[in-house]
Design goal:
Layout: H1 4-48, E1 54-60, H2 65-78, E2 82-86, H3 91-100, E3 105-108, H4 114-122, E4 127-136, E5 138-142, E6 151-152, H5 153-160, H6 169-172, E7 182-186, H7 191-201, E8 211-213, H8 216-224, E9 229-233, H9 235-240, E10 245-247, E11 250-251, E12 256-257, H10 261-266, E13 273-281, H11 282-285, H12 288-307, H13 315-328
Parallel strand pairs: 1-2, 1-3, 6-11, 7-8, 7-9
Antiparallel strand pairs: 3-13, 4-13, 5-9, 5-10, 11-12
Length: about 325
């Protein structure tokens, strides 16, 4: 029979061993928990820094083009493996490509038309509209034009409507030169043309002698090169060429107002202020590179739109857009 001392000693040793084992188990658990936490953080960092691959095709508005071009440049620094192609065939041209299924995004300086929606529906193409910024459609004249101080909506209409006559400056306002006006307008595939046609011309014919181009830089050069020229396009193209052009304040009924970031954002520059859009195919958003590109666009549109001469939306508008994007995924 074992003595009491032996039994007590055995019990003490057993207790010590049990305590040591418990501590070891606790330490191991802590170490394992730490390892799991660090592993989770590493995985999250890996997701954030994940390098994507793929191609994204974009077409549409020449007005929206400067914003998207800036986005593509910045996104490319983070994701060089994603090839993003951006064209500017005009809002109408962009929707044609969108309907044909050759693009993931369609940039637009006007909302999608009912007939375009119908064609997309026929092709089974579901899409979502996202606003990127605001624009003040700018009417410009040559830098050496000293007589035009502002124009009313009625004067713009009288000037740009086709009526079978040769338009002279003196026809628009008494005392202005008896010189023929030279017109420069975005092409008929342009959302800017559509907007001007709706708001100013009220869907009546534009002057036949106007030089039309989907490339706003061609319009800039045309107006800059002729003292008797007048044209219109997005605010960013005027802002980029202030040294060559003179912007015309527009009187929408409450006195002449010049397009600026402040007057466009407030709506004071009326009726020529308008939103700018991009449309994305819902099916394309399922591709990780498209989702991340659109997310990057919405997160950076405020800064980049202002950088290129447009007016950002309110912060809550971008937040709502990001929520909509998450819903699509």
């Amino acid at each position: 029979m074992k003595s009491f001392k032996y039994v007590a000693l055995s019990a003490m040793i057993g207790a010590v061993l049990a305590f040591t084992a418990a501590c070891g188990s606790s330490d191991a658990g802590t170490a394992n928990g730490s390892s799991q936490t660090e592993g989770t953080k590493t995985e999250q960092a890996g997701e954030e820094n994940k390098q994507l691959q793929g191609e994204i095709n974009i077409d549409g508005s020449s007005t929206v083009f400067p914003i998207m071009e800036a986005v593509v440049e910045e996104f490319g620094m983070e994701q060089p493996g994603v090839k993003v192609s951006v064209a500017s065939s005009g809002t109408g041209g962009g929707f044609k490509a969108f309907i044909a299924g050759t693009t993931d995004f369609s940039n637009a300086s006007r909302p999608v038309k009912d007939e375009e929606k119908a064609q997309l529906d026929e092709k089974g193409i579901a899409f979502t509209e996202f606003k990127l910024a605001n624009d003040g459609l700018s009417v410009v004249v040559n830098k050496d034009n000293t007589w035009v101080d502002y124009l009313t909506i009625d004067e713009l209409k009288k000037m740009w409507l086709e009526d079978g006559t040769v338009k002279k400056w003196s026809d628009i306002r008494k005392g202005w030169p008896e010189e023929e006006i030279k017109f420069y307008s975005p092409g008929t595939d342009s959302g800017t043309f559509d907007y001007f046609d709706e708001v100013i011309l009220e869907d009546q014919p534009l002057v036949e002698k106007a030089t039309l181009s989907e490339d706003d830089n061609v319009l800039v050069q045309g107006v800059a090169g002729d003292k008797n020229a007048i044209g219109y396009f997005g605010y960013a193209y005027y802002a980029e060429n202030k040294d060559k052009l003179k912007v015309v304040p527009i009187d929408g009924g409450n006195g002449p107002v010049e397009p600026t970031n402040a007057t466009v954002e407030s709506g004071e520059y009326s009726p020529l202020s308008r939103p700018l859009f991009t449309y994305v195919k819902n099916e394309s958003v399922k591709k990780e590179e498209v989702y991340e590109f659109l997310k990057f666009t919405l997160e950076n549109a405020a800064v980049l739109s202002e950088d290129v001469g447009y007016v950002k939306l309110k912060d809550e508008d971008y937040k709502k857009a990001l929520e909509t994007l998450k819903g699509l995924k």
